[in-house]
Each structure stands twice: as C-alpha cells, then as structure tokens.
Amino acid sequence: MDYYNQDYKGQSERSRWTPLTRMLLSGEMTQERQKELSAKEKFDRWMVNEGYRRVFVFVFALLHMLVFAFAFVNYGVKDNLQIARDTFGPTFMIARSAALVLHLDVALVLFPVCRTLISLARQTPLNGIIQFDKNITFHKVTAWSIVFWSWVHTIAHWNNLGQAAAKNNLGVYGFLVANLVSGPGWTGYVMLVALMGMVFTSVEKPRRANYERFWYTHHMFIIFFFFWSIHGAFCMIQPDFAPFCTATGASAVGVFWQYWMYGGFAYLAERIAREVRGKHKTYISKVIQHPSNVCEIQIKKEHTKTRAGQYIFLCCPAVSLWQYHPFTLTSAPEEDYISIHMRIVGDFTRTLAQTLGCEFEKRGGGGDKKDTSQVVGVDGENPDVDPALRRVLPRVYVDGPFGSASEDVFKYEISVLVGAGIGVTPFASILKSIWYRMNYPKKRTRLSKVYFFWICRDFGSFEWFRSLLLAIEAQDVDNRIEIHTYLTAKIKADDATNIMINDANADKDTITGLRSPTNFGRPNWDMIFRGIRKLHSPAEAGVFFCGPKGLGSALHIFCNKYSEPGFSFVWGKENF
C-alpha cells in the first residue's frame, strides 16, 4: 500500500496524517510478525549498537586484569624483594600490582577530556572504528577504575603497615606513624581525599544540584597529580641489593610522573588552547526572553565555523571568570550568528539571565506576557532597533564548537530525531540546517527522510521551537520531514472535547498550529520502529535522542530489537 499518496477529500484531519501515521493507524503493523533471526544475524544486530562498546569494556577489563596478574607474578618471584615479601606477606604484591594498574589508568584518564583532540579525531576515518562520542563515558570508566584500584592499594598497604608494626613491636602508635607521618603515607591520603572529593561531587545528582561545586572540586586533580608524582620518591621499601633507592639525586625525583606526563601535556595544551580560543572578543547581539524560564542568547559569529548538532562552552566574566558551561547550539551553520537557548535551572544560569536583563523571577511567569517571547536586549551599537532595547550587553567567552553524536545526522539515509522537554534544543540547529539545505540545495547530503518526535508536557513552554517547526513545515513541500508531536499532560474532559471539535475540520492542529495532528499520551515505540523499518527497508537509520535517561535507555533497546539484516537502527545521543 502506498502511504505517501493518498487523498482524503473532505476529511481534513486524515489528510494531515503523515505516511507513518497512516501506516500505524491502518492496522497493518499489528499483523506483522517479528522475523526469526539466525545466530549470526543476532550477533550482527548486537554489534550494531552494543558490540563495540561491550567488546571495548571487555578488553579494558581484561587488560587491567592481565597487568595486575603479570605484576603480581613479577613481584612474587623477583629476587631482590624477598625481604619485603617476608615482612609484609602477599598484600605487598597486591599493593604493588594495584599501583601498576593505576599507572595505566592515570596515563589514560586525561585524554578523553581533551575536547579539541576529540573533535579533530571525529573528523578522521578512525571515527568509524573508535566511538569518540563516548569520550566522557571512557573518562568515567577510567576514573572509577582509579577509585577501585586506589582502595585496593590502600587496604593492602594497611595490612602491610600493620604487619610491619607487629613484627617490630611498634604497636598502634607505630602503625599510625607509618600511615600519617611517612612520605608515602601522608601523600597517599592527600591523593585519596582529593580523589574522593572529585568522585562525590561528580555523581549525577550532586553534579546537577550544584554544577559550580563539581567544577571547582574537579580541579583537585592538580593536587592529585602533584602528589602522585612524588608518592614513590620516598624510598620507604628498599630492594634487597643494589641499585638502592636514595632520597637524594635522581631517585629523589621519582618516576611516577613519567606515566601521566603525555596525557598531562595533552591536557595542558588543551587548556591553553581553550583559554586562547575563548578569550577572543565575542559579543552578544540579542537577548530574547521566552516563556517557562528559557533565555535565548544570540552571539555575533566572528571567525567561527559551526556544524549542525554541535555544542559550545560559555563563560560570562560578569558572572564568573572561570566557569565554562556546555550549551547546545540552536542556530544553523548557514546563519550569521550562533545562538543557545538556556533554561534557568541553577545559580549560574539564573545569574547570567539577570545580568542579560531577563526578569523571570520578577514576572514569576505571570502577567499578560507570560506566554509570549520578548526581546529584552540588543547590542547597543545597532542603530536600527528600538532605542529602548539598545543596551551594552556583557562580553562572553566561547570555547568551541565541539562535535557530538547529533552531528552525524546527515550521514544516514533516514534520521529519527527524538526530543523530550528541553531536550529538543540540539535538534533546533539540525532542523534549521535541513531547512536551509532544502531551500538552498548547494550541499549534497545522503539524508532523504527525517522523522522528528517531540514529546512534551506543555507545548506553550517552547513557543520558540514551535515557531521554528511552523517555518520548516511550510517550506517542506516534499514531505521530507515528518513531525510527530506528543502531549503527555493530563487534559480535562471539557478541554479534550473542545480540541476534538475544533480539530475535526481544521487544516491545522488546534494545539500546535502544525499540519500534523497532535498525539496524546506517550509514543508506541514498538509500532513506530516497525513502521519506519517497513517503509524504508533496506536502509540504515540513525536514531538521535536528547532527554530523560529512562527514555534514552528504552530507545536504545528498541534500536537493538528492530535492527535486522537489510535495516539497522544506529543509536546516538547527546553526551557532554
């Protein structure tokens, strides 16, 4: 059945149905059975979204266990460490082996947070092999590995020092002195305190509750790496015979710094580049206050090249000289400015909005203009605007732009975009860019069809985004972009009746003003994924999502479930 060319004369609502909606409502998909896959086909499907990640985690864990095992055997048979083994027992080998694993992790942990390096790597052929978009995930995995092996190392040394104190009749006092006064002891505890401080403030809930606390405590990595460099230079445990470790000369410098210096140099270069890049003169050209505590900031585009789906780090010296916060770009590369839509949810965003002239708290969502957007400030040098709006807007520092998974939307034949709540912001830039490419087809693209799913409790909260969708839909005469809106808020019976009456013979949706009707409730993802596969197989579809973690996990599962030979759903999501 052709779902793209059906005429429903006199039935306005049906005529506004998208091809995918027509297929789903026809009942055809309910009769389709899931194809039975062979073992090889199941493995190939697993590899699409899960395989490389799982294989990487397995190799990562295996590498750590091999390093630990080889080190344990080495320290267990090394002929010049017999006295140490006799004094401390097997926990001496455990402590030393854990330290070697830590050297590996410390050497790796800084590379994933070198954003410039990662963005450059995404543009190389290696991006098809290595998932550079998972850089933050890799950083977290390595960091948790450091935490685990640090505690293994610490607990093993507690036993070592207890054994030494007991065999030398030093008692509890000797144990405490060895722990807190000896060079390896006190430097180790300083590192452990710094490490756990970074860990506790970087867990999701504390980080979201107070980003500033996370930002500042994470700079305790400087303390961690400094004391790491000297932790092994105190020569507390001597070998049985020469060459001996000495507290003077070359031995006093230690060798621990040699393990992390390459990552350290890369990160230092990254921070220098970040400061140089971010400190060039950047000016805000316009500030727009939107309903539901959203502030749009438009910045003059000077010497900056962007791509759809990228993000920047923004610093406003008038608010905080050192804090850089990530924001997704909502402007298209084809526009002469870059813009972000900032939701007021924390101390930094609230202070920045007030500095820019927004008055969310004062208005409190009330007043006659609560459901409209309002320009609150325009660059004072622009003579073509209302003098009442002209003002001197603060300078901002912009670091970036950097790539994300959503940047790959044009690499697929079919793209499925899912935005929930404020998660629609990454797709503003992408949809704008698609609109420009449709109207000014200078750039060739593999992309032939876009499905955009917008899930929200209150569409009035995103008036700025609804206006964008209206403009895109008006120009999309070839129906290359299908917009599916879902309203999840509970609606009173009287309101539902009024909506149905007004929508029955209308050529536009009563709620959104779009041609495509609004759906009530949550999407039936099983039917949607099966329908897209039915309409476009054979092909490859990229699925891009930004929103709540629970929905992202569910979509990830659906991508795996409905990928089969001839059609693959490739999973991607925003990741800062």
UniProtKB/TrEMBL annotation:
The keyword Transmembrane helix applies. The chain crosses the membrane at residues 55-77, 97-120, 141-158, 170-203, 215-234, 246-269, 308-325, 414-436. GO terms for cellular component: NADPH oxidase complex. Keywords: Electron transport, Heme, Ion transport, Iron, Membrane, Metal-binding, Oxidoreductase, Transmembrane, Transmembrane helix, Transport. The keyword Ribosomal protein does not apply. PROSITE patterns: FAD_FR. InterPro entries: Cyt_b245_heavy_chain (IPR000778), FAD-bd_8 (IPR013112), FAD-bd_FR_type (IPR017927), Fe3_Rdtase_TM_dom (IPR013130), Fe_red_NAD-bd_6 (IPR013121), FNR_nucleotide-bd (IPR039261), RBOH/FRE (IPR050369), Riboflavin_synthase-like_b-brl (IPR017938). Its main location: membrane. It is found in: Membrane. It is a multi-pass membrane protein. GO terms for molecular function: metal ion binding; superoxide-generating NAD(P)H oxidase activity. One of its GO terms (biological process) is monoatomic ion transport. Residues 277-408 form the FAD-binding FR-type domain. This is NADPH oxidase isoform 2. It comes from Pseudallescheria apiosperma (Scedosporium apiospermum). The lineage of its organism: Eukaryota, Fungi, Dikarya, Ascomycota, Pezizomycotina.
